[in-house]
Design a protein that fits this description.
CATH superfamily: Sodium/glucose cotransporter
Largest sheet: none
Number of domains: 1
Structural class: mainly alpha
Helix content: over 70%
Number of helices: 19
Shape: globular
Strand content: under 5%
Number of strands: 0
């Protein structure tokens, strides 16, 4: 079987891409209007929603970017895994029930719809849609680039197209993604999530087993090998340092409540009581699947140090190369297929919330109504966003590491959405003015600090820009709300917030 490794791996990935097309065509028959395209008819069961939540969080960010960060920074990246699981708990505690009730109140099809209901402000709707759109470009770029890296590694090892460029890999993978997203919308995304989430859990356990066997002494020898080469990377804080790790902890734990592709899925289940079952499904699924994130990064670094694997040209190739060279062919094929599934379903989620912002929310804010033929324009906008994100992923000067590109998008979402949504839906004192200023400040801080990094201006203690923006936006939201006149809430909004 090993003689046909490349054929098996490529066959599994090709079969998955064909399945994407089939699911897209099936979902197109169920997508009759914009409500179906953006919200899946708000008719999902708890198992589908729970798996969709965790798998859309992991995605290419975790499957490709996660091992790369472990390889590059050591234990620092483990803090992301720990706090992301905490983020699920915070998300469901703060929003699981309340955001569903807000969505049901006005039959909302997007997060800015809910925000407009809460604050009675079209300006707040517009700013929230703008923040989501900007975050989508960064985060979606990381997904597309992850797909391209994996496809390039697979193709370059075969005999069909060994010298394929990263640009062609972006074109091929994006073409399948666009077809799948345009035809099926969010329905295609969540049902693919169900399929690939179950595969991810099984595959992660198997990959963890093979990573454990990378060196004869298991993870004890792997840890000792890495510590002997670079003691700092195996220290509790890794190469990033204590404050850098704590900024990630803060950003990914509390910031998890502000991820629109996750939060909107909480609006899609058919029963508000399902939230109590969705949470354990999501946390357990993520915890098991994250074993792949940690184990591959450590194993690959130890293999390189011991001379058992060539030095990686790019940290982002850690996961693809480990699967290609250090696991059985059929397992590598299944994991690669699951990886593509995770990336595409997450990318579909981002394209979906981005298209909603362009087609539904921004027109609603500016002209009091969404575009005519909303479903048609949603599909056209999905294509345009995918093309823009693909170009951004290839040519952005800050797109060197997939996980860092993804974490920048995560930071944009967190700083803009956490105070306005996670706090605002639970605190009656929050005002529209506070929400507007917090969103604007969060965007300015995120992009200013990113520009400072680009200009090689040192950020103290390697603190993440998203954490700085999140702290600032929360302080601004509370301060302005307390200094402003208390808002007058409608009876419906007040009743939901009292639940």
């Amino acid at each position: 079987m090993e003689a046909y490794r490349n054929t098996i791996v490529f066959g599994c990935v090709a079969a998955y891409m064909v399945l994407c097309i089939v699911i897209g065509l099936w979902a197109m028959r169920k997508t009759k209007n914009a409500h179906d395209f953006f919200m899946a008819g708000r008719n999902l069961g708890f198992l589908v929603t729970g798996i969709a939540v965790f798998s859309s969080t992991l995605s290419g960010f975790g499957f490709v970017g996660g091992p790369a960060l472990i390889y590059k920074m050591g234990i620092s990246s483990v803090w992301m895994v720990i706090c992301a699981a905490i983020g699920f708990c915070l998300s469901f505690y703060l929003l699981g029930k309340r955001i569903w009730l807000f969505a049901a109140m006005r039959d909302s099809i997007s997060l800015p719809d809910v925000v407009a209901t809460r604050y009675k402000s079209e300006l707040t709707r517009f700013l929230m849609a703008l923040a989501i759109l900007l975050g989508v470009m960064a985060y979606l770029g990381s997904q597309i680039k992850a797909m391209a890296h994996v496809l390039q590694d697979i193709m370059s090892r075969g005999s069909f197209w060994q010298d394929i460029s990263l640009e062609w890999c972006v074109v091929i993978s994006s073409a399948v993604l666009v077809f799948y997203c345009v035809t099926g919308g969010i329905i295609a995304s969540v049902y693919t999530d169900l399929f690939q989430g179950l595969i991810m859990i099984v595959a992660a356990l198997l990959v963890f087993f093979y990573a454990y066997q990378a060196l004869p002494g298991g993870f004890a020898e792997i840890s000792q090998t890495i510590a002997a080469d670079d003691a700092e990377s195996m220290a509790p804080w890794g190469a990033l340092g204590m404050l850098g790790c704590m900024s990630w902890y803060f950003l990914f734990a509390l910031g998890g409540v502000g991820q629109p592709h996750v939060v909107t899925k909480m609006m899609m289940n058919k029963n508000v009581r399902d939230a109590r079952y969705i949470l354990p499904v999501s946390v357990i699924g993520f915890g098991v699947s994250a074993l792949l994130w940690i184990s591959i990064g450590l194993a690959m670094r130890a293999l390189v140090i011991n001379g058992l694997h060539p030095e990686l040209a790019a940290a982002d190739t850690a996961a693809p190369q480990f699967l290609q060279l250090h696991t059985p062919a059929i397992l590598a094929g299944v994991v690669f297929a699951a990886l593509f599934a995770a990336i595409m379903s997450t990318a579909d989620g981002f394209l979906n919330v981005g298209a909603a912002a362009v087609v539904h929310d921004i027109p609603q804010a500016l002209r009091g109504k969404s575009l005519k033929h909303e479903l048609l324009w949603a599909r056209i906008t999905t294509v345009a966003l995918a093309v823009a994100a693909a170009l951004f992923s290839l040519y952005s000067p800050d797109a060197k590491l997939i996980a860092m590109l993804g974490s920048f998008g995560w930071g944009i979402f967190a700083a803009a959405i956490v105070p306005v949504v996670a706090i605002g839906l639970n605190w009656k004192r929050g005002t529209a003015l506070a929400a507007n200023v917090a969103i604007i400040a969060s965007l300015l801080i995120n992009f200013t600090v990113m520009f400072m990094r680009k200009m090689e201006v040192p950020i103290p203690y390697k603190i993440h820009e998203g954490a700085i923006a999140l702290i600032a936006s929360i302080c601004i939201y509370f301060s302005i709300s307390l200094l402003s006149k208390p808002p007058v809430l409608s009876k419906e909004v007040e009743a939901v917030m009292d639940v």
